[in-house]
Amino acid sequence: MAARRGTLAAGAARAGGERARRRTTPLIGADPVQEAPAAEAPVRRPAAKATTTKATTTKATTKKAATRKAATRKTAATATPATVSTPRPTPATAPASKPTPPAPAPPATPARRKHRPAPRVTSAPSARATTQAGERTGRARLSPREKARRDAESRRPHLRLAEPPPPPVEEAAPPLDPTISDAPGRSGLPVPDLTDLVEALVVALRVAAEAAGVAPEDVERRVAQVLAYLRRRLDGDYTVDDFGYDEHFTEHVFYPMLRPLYRHWFRVEVRGIENIPAEGGALVVSNHSGTVALDSLMVQLAIHDEHPAHRTMRALGADLVFQTPFVGTMARRSGSTLATNDDAERLFARGELVGVFPEGFKGTGKPFSERYKLQRFGRGGFVSAALAAGVPIVPCSVVGAEEIAPILGNMGTLARLLGLPYAPITPTFPWLGPLGLVPLPSKWIIEFGTPIETEGHEDGAADDPMLVFDLTDQVRETIQQTLYTLLMQRRSVFF
Amino acid sequence: MARVVLVTGVSRYLGGLLARRIALEPGVDHVVGVDVIPPPHDIGGVEFVRADIRNPMIGRVIDSAGVDTVVHMNVIATPTFVGGRTPQKEINVIGTMQLLAACQKSSTVRRLVVKSSAAVYGSTPRDPAMFTEDMGARRTPSGGFGKDSIEVEGYVRGFARRRPDTEILMLRLANVIGPRIRTSITDYFSMPVIPVPLGYDARMQFLHEDDAIDALVLGGAGSTTGVVNVAGDGVVTVLQAAALAGRPVLPLPLNTAGFVGGMTKRLGLADFSPDQMSFLAFGRGLDTTRMRDELGFTPRFTTREAFEAFAATLGPAVPGGSVLSDAVSGVAGTASQAVLRALGAGSGR
């Protein structure tokens, strides 16, 4: 029985570390009640008796006093004078504000001192307590022996009191845990080292290329490029700007993917590329057509490939684009962002080339019979953004995009059901299934018109609706006229 | 002028560090730290008072110490650490209410600094690329920490109306990350395989823990008022962050997020509320012009550097994975060498 009580007491002592510490730091305002738990504590578990609030009394010579408790008391005893000696304003402020507090009836001064004790560390923080406080140590769980050793360490009063508060510099670079530093860094995955794989792969490809009769150097170069790209992607070694534009991806995947379409399928002819300024902000305003909004991608690629400065057009897209998985991600990565004034102004402030398609879904979803008839140009938000930033507006007319998927009818119910602006019926879709998504190979002409300057206007011009509407109409008319001219010059839809 | 600073939430990692730093600031006489549990770490020259901010007793602490600056750090982002969503909400909302009530009653409080969060902006596909302080959430967060933060800010605004003589600064911090701090985000990126929403690649901004402390110290010591976004420069996408952390990703459709979130919570890997799920799908960016111009603070770490500082402390995703990967590399290397030699012999012939 005695033995069992001993183990029980030891267990309670071990488990009660947290509780004991809590008891030494009483909840404020709960002062006189302190005596009650102290009185009931010895009844239940004798081990916890040592942690009564009166730490300075020398009642401690109980025969049950284990080494741990003794040490605790010693810490408290030695710590108390030190605490008093340190210049703390508490004793000064407490009597000053003594007349005002209404609540505690019992003699205030000693009680107050007791209520506001400094936290005395009597044990090293357990791993759990630390993580619960929102700190990640990365250490493995301590063995009981190690924990006891650290407890003893943290209890050593002379060390604790002599220790000055660590300087902030030390905080800035917390020493990493030694158990982590020798751990393998980021290549912890069971993925073989890429360089070795590359080597093996290149060798295999050389063999294959030689067998196929292609120059192995050429193949090797291409493969090396692809692998270099993949390596950077796998390492996360690329930058994304504030809008989500990922230049590395766009240059290496997105544009190369579009180029065959641009060069060989639509055979895009670009006119007036010199109208796009080589640097600084500008707003490209274009017509929008083609059921699937390929024209925005083609304009973007045209500017990138044909312009001497290889500028990137930052298109502004509709809400729906960014709600759709994959499409929205791809749009952000390739430089598009949401069509709001906030984003447009931010882009202009950075001197970016912004592209808008103010017809929106009205333009792409119009029936084939209305081809090349410009729809309403939104609410003119793009013009006021350009006015506010004082950037030129470059009108852009795209001919050929209307014929890539002529809309013969619209499945309105289905569109509403799917939450889409329209569900088109074209000569090929939905009859041919996925094949119907292949655009017809029409011949495209993209013409950039003379820039319309917006700089000369006085301050606050962006808030003048009349001016904004006038400019909007001017841009719209320019594009419409250019479209008619281009259509007259065009020999046929497909050549 | 004697300055007495009260820091709530001092037993948490960030709060403890902050209290210690404020105590070292010149011009600060005395720092009182308040929390319900004693701090597990050494808080230096800070006087610890065990009090619950959900309890009116906090008013007496403020009175008796003559506090003139209150730094409210006890808005908890991670439900795991306080025992679930209910206590979290109680601490965040009721705690703030009680603390503000005490501040309103007090005749000494001159300045209030609240650690708020960028979660107030929510995360939707209709968000602008960068939120300035004047913008609101496009869709108000319907639950979780985001809603708490909005309510906390609401109470702070109410307090500002009733006590116009008090300087109030609200710092909307981006997700704090670093080598030591533990949050939902660090839990998430510590998972051996990271589930990501299929078809989305959100932009995220991080703030290094040291920068967070510096910004809060600056906010407590300075005289800036109003709302200020605090975030590291640049953005990192979810997939990029996973790559930087050296973790494989598992793309899952967004509508399974609830189930996966429940599973990870059950397994104790990470605790994610629905608003954090939408953060992982749509992301968020903060405009930090005001942070530089008005608060006069420049973070030392960019978003990417902050994340890399965190990623450097991560162990391997799979224990023993390095051995396996070395073995596979070795085999591949040997094989390629062998083939090369054979080829060399072939071409030489």
Summarize this structure briefly.
Chain B: It comes from Phycicoccus sonneratiae. The complex is a heterodimer of chains A (495) and B (349). By secondary structure, chain A is α/β, with parallel strands linked by helices.
Q: Tell me, rounded to a whole number, the average pLDDT of chain B.
A: 87
Count of extended strands of chain A = 9
What is the 3D form of chain B? elongated
Top-tier CATH class of the domain at 247-404 and 439-489 in chain A: Alpha Beta
Helix content range of chain B: 40-55%
CATH structural architecture of the domain at 247-404 and 439-489 in chain A: 3-Layer(aba) Sandwich
Q: What would the principal axes of the Cα set say about the shape of chain A?
A: extended
Going across the biggest sheet of chain A, name each strand in turn.
1-9-6-2-5-3-4
How confident overall, as mean pLDDT of chain A? 75
Strand content of chain A: 5-15%
- Structural class label of chain B: alpha/beta
User: What's the N-to-C terminus distance of chain A?
Assistant: 103 Å
Characterize the main sheet of chain B: 7 strands, parallel
Helices of chain B, by number, come to 12
Percentage of residues assigned to helices of chain A: 40-55%
**Radius of gyration over C-alpha positions of chain A, nearest whole angstrom:** 38 Å
Characterization of this structure:
Chain B: InterPro entries: Epimerase_deHydtase, Lipid_A_modif_metabolic_enz, NAD(P)-bd_dom_sf. Chain B: This is NAD-dependent epimerase/dehydratase family protein. Chain A: InterPro entries: Plipid/glycerol_acylTrfase. The complex is a heterodimer of chains A (495) and B (349). The N and C termini of chain A lie far apart (103 Å). In chain A, helix 14 packs across helix 15, helix 18 runs parallel beside helix 20 and helix 20 packs across helix 22. Chain A is an alpha/beta fold. Among the domains of chain A are: 33 residues, no CATH class; 42 residues; 209 residues, Glycerol-3-phosphate (1)-acyltransferase (3-Layer(aba) Sandwich), CATH 3.40.1130. Chain A is built from 22 helices and 9 strands. Chain A is extended and about 95 Å long. Chain B has 349 residues and is of the alpha/beta class. Helix content of chain B is 43%, strand content 16%. A 7-stranded parallel beta sheet of chain B has the order 3-2-1-4-5-6-11, sandwiched between helices. A two-stranded parallel sheet of chain B has the order 7-10. In chain B, strand 5, helix 4 and strand 6 form a beta-alpha-beta unit. In chain B, helix 1 packs across helix 6 and helix 2 packs across helix 3. The mean pLDDT of chain B is 87. The chains are: A alpha/beta (495), B alpha/beta (349). Chains A and B meet through helix 5, helix 7, helix 10, helix 12 and helix 13 of A and helix 1, strand 3, helix 2, strand 12 and helix 7 of B.
